[in-house]
């Protein structure tokens, strides 16, 4: 089949698909002013037209399953996917605002291969501070979006002392889309805390965030935030920071000073509860256990003579140090959790990530020693953001990142 014929077939496929979804209101969120995030315009990443034509022809049998999946996700996420597909066919790029990032060594670096999967992250977009650099915040986009779109919105915020880093998630098959590839921080089957957890994908994305922040100067305060799935990834980073390790047990390398989540949910809620409860139980048992020790002055260091027995029974001093580090680690985790400021926002009209999931996530965090969680409700707000919500985010970041007395 020649290029012209292939293009024609692809165009017919896309036109039929667009007509179908226009009837069910797929593009309403693109045309509605209240869903337009102010003046922000979505700028999809660049892909060659020939690649898109090839995908459309080879994946034609998957359109019906994709259609069902898109309907389940909701109009807002569908709009992001539709915007990307339209841009793919039009051959649009990301513009000149993108900045290529270099990555230092970390437990899971950009493009690294884990035991079973490889994660290739997209382009990272940076918004430089307009004033004196006091803080750096990594902001994570939602499912099907990219870093460029949010960088344009963040650049307009009245926060001149913050450097914004907006990475793009890997493009991977997503279960909730019936296996259709999309930018996604982790695989997901259900947009709530009740779905199965892709810990490997979450660890890779959280490590990517930490990797971006690890190169910042020591006197710069660090934060992470996001929207929808980006908010879920930000919260996973927050719990990893508090516990001191990723889900795979490797140490989390940076200290976060502020966390923001818009229209998101808490992944790995069940494992978080068991981890923190285990730490609390260990500290509680240690503090309440009565122990009576007797020791003779003539006994050498590191050995205890048990009466009427030969030889000496020795104890390992190293095991004492290990016990101390474990108990101190439990106390440190509880202390980090209780002091980490987290700001969660959710609209009651959200039909993609339901309001009850956002509310439940805040409750789980608070019940697990995250004492500095603020959950704010917005009546009538759907799965998008509005200026009033972003104003609240600005106030929170100003307070938690020490920007109150800053001078531009």
From TrEMBL:
Residues 125-298, 331-400 form the Phospholipase/carboxylesterase/thioesterase domain. It comes from the Eukaryota. Signal peptide: none annotated. It holds the Pfam family Abhydrolase_2. InterPro entries: AB_hydrolase_fold, PLipase/COase/thioEstase. One of its GO terms (molecular function) is hydrolase activity. This is Phospholipase/carboxylesterase/thioesterase domain-containing protein.
């Amino acid at each position: 089949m020649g290029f012209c014929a292939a293009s024609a077939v692809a165009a017919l496929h896309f036109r039929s698909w667009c007509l179908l979804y226009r009837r069910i209101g797929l593009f309403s969120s693109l045309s509605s002013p209240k869903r337009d995030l102010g003046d922000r315009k979505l700028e999809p990443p660049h892909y060659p037209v020939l690649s898109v034509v090839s995908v459309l022809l080879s994946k034609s049998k998957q359109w019906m399953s994709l259609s069902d999946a898109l309907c389940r996700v909701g109009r807002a996420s569908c709009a992001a996917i539709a915007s990307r597909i339209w841009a793919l066919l039009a051959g649009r790029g990301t513009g000149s605002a993108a900045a290529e990032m270099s990555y230092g060594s970390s437990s899971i670096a950009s493009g690294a291969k884990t035991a079973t999967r490889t994660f290739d992250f997209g382009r990272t977009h940076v918004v430089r501070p307009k004033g004196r650099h006091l803080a750096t915040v990594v902001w994570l986009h939602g499912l099907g979006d990219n870093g460029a779109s949010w960088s344009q919105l963040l650049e307009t915020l009245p926060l001149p002392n913050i450097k914004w880093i907006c990475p793009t998630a890997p493009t991977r098959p997503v279960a909730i889309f019936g296996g259709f590839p999309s930018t996604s921080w982790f695989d997901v089957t259900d947009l709530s805390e009740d779905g199965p957890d892709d810990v490997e994908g979450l660890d890779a994305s959280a490590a990517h965030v930490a990797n971006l922040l690890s190169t910042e100067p020591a006197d710069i305060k660090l934060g992470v935030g996001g929207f929808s799935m980006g908010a879920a990834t930000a919260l996973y980073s927050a719990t990893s920071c508090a516990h001191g390790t990723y889900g795979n047990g490797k140490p989390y390398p940076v200290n976060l000073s502020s966390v923001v989540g818009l229209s998101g949910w808490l992944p790995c809620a069940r494992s978080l509860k068991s981890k923190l409860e285990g730490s609390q139980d260990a500290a509680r048992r240690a503090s309440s256990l009565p122990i009576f020790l007797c020791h003779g002055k003539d006994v050498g260091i590191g050995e205890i003579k048990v009466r009427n027995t030969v030889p000496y029974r020795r104890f390992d001093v190293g095991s004492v140090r290990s016990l101390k580090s474990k108990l101190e680690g439990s106390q440190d985790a509880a202390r980090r959790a209780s002091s980490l400021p987290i700001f969660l926002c959710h609209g009651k009209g959200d039909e993609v990530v339901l309001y009850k999931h956002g509310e439940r996530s805040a409750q789980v965090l608070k019940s697990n020693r995250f004492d500095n969680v603020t959950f704010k409700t917005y009546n009538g707000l759907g799965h998008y953001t509005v200026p009033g919500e972003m104003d609240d985010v600005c106030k929170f970041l100003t307070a938690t990142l020490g920007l109150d007395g800053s001078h531009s």
